[in-house]
Amino acid sequence: xxxxxxxxxxxxxQAALGAAAAVETLEAARAELAATTLPLAVxxxxxxxxxxxxSLAQLDDYVIPRYRSLDAxxxxxVGGSTGAGKSTLVNALIGYPVTRAGAIRPTTRQPILxxxxxxxxxxxxxxxxxxxxxxxxxxxxxPLPAHQAGATPDAQAITSLVLVGHAAVPQGxxxxxxxxxxxxxxxxxxxxxxxxxxxxxxxxxxxxNRYADAVPWRLLLDAASRDITxxxxxxxxPAAADEEVRTDLQAMLDRQGLAEAxxxxxxxxxxxxxxxxxxxxxxxxxxxxxxLAADAVGRAEVARRTLNGAxxxxxxxxxxxxxxxxxxxxxxxxxxxxxxxxxxxxxxRILEATRDGAxxxxxxxARWQDFVGTGEFFRALEQNxxxxxxxxxxxxxxxxxxxxxxxxxxxxxxxxxxxxxxxxAAENVxxxxxxxxxxxxxxxxxxxxxxxxxxxxxxxxxxxxxQEGLMEMIRTQGQGKRTQARWLSFGVNGLGAALMVxxxxxxxxxxxxxxxIAGGTAVVGQKLLEAVFGEDAVRRLAQQAxxxxxxxxxxLLDDERERFLGRLEAAHPxxxxxxxxxxxxxxxxxxxA
Length: 593
Description:
The chain is an alpha/beta fold and 593 residues long. It contains 19 helices and 8 strands. An 8-stranded mixed sheet has the order 3-4-2-5-1-6-7-8, sandwiched between helices. α9 (296-355) packs antiparallel against α19 (577-592).
């Protein structure tokens, strides 16, 4: 091993370590980007979604593969406008008709990658352009005319890449004949863009008649922004216009930041019987490519320059996607706040209706007055046997006890309030969300402006559960020997009905019980409870009953609210913070390279 070898080995090792670290960073950024969802219809979201697709493709097709194999041959993609003569140029560079050229468009649907036979290992696998299948092509022993060479145009063949090894291709560089960038076929245009994004350098072909067209210049400006090495081939230039057209195009390149682009002029020439250009018409381009292929340092510089530009371009897109994700997060927050606020207001209105006496009207009041005014209640105050006699009589008559009728009336009235407020909340949220583009896209065509199916049954079950819990509190509170005889005299249902009436007439919380319903008939229930349990116990029971009712109503409304919020959670709009950090890391990576 020579001294120079000793010096190169540490540098090579350091470069390998640097590339490995870069790949790790890039793969982490890619994973974060792939996990990014932009489901909400915020402004410019379509552009951001396109940035995601383009960045993933750039990372998969070129950036990560190139970092993994910095010493791989350069990939020169030959692209340009329809009819510019790309395939004819490629054939001329090889000196043999290997790609199809002709007047029928599009002639190049299935891209052909030409490489030196010794470079086959770099392209047989899916190192670059992993989404395209590989087809190993061959060159005919007998030359075919250019319009018969290569694969027959096939509308279904654009998902594959034809690999052709030929000794005329310089080792260290490969040529890829791409579809038209302005093809009438959407698929062709997308494939052309994908191939150009995977290139180490562009050989961009235009003509004397079309070099100022908008589509080619959009791509050339994109190349300038990414610092890609570009060779511009001006094809079919009449001899009389050579100097004028060359000068004009060079001036345009200079103005647009492409002063360093190599400019090659192919004079207008008649094709021979095989559809080939005269060899001398492309000799300068062939020599330039050959010299580049033979210069390992030059190749590495081209690859590094293009790679850095691609990484910078991805970092810019990541910043854009991060901003879009932040906008998504803000939109989701606004939708969430609106939804939560509407259901919180619905809960407040329900609870207000349960403490301002509103429920102690109509049927509830009538059943309560039946309970305290028809004799059963007061007879129970006078003698235990009265309660038992009336209940036995009601049993044989098939009538529910008056206290149970009070419970049923309360259940019906409370259920109506809950249903009404839940429906109002759903209608308001649906209206607010549909007035916003993000919410409208989340809801789609489904109408959520009413309560969910079966909500009325759920509400009734929740109320009964609350009533059962209230009865259990009374049983537990009445276990003491001193009060047991008293509460047994009135029964759990009677005391429970009284407690419900007290709960629904609480207007001052624990500081007092104010009841003003029907001349103070509810006062009787309050006094009864105080006589049985004591004033402090009644306060505690009433507050516990109110808290339990709050909990039941909260659960009901939370379930209803989830119909909206669940859509936000399923959409997973992120903050974009991680993407912004990866964008910074990629900028540092490109700057350090």
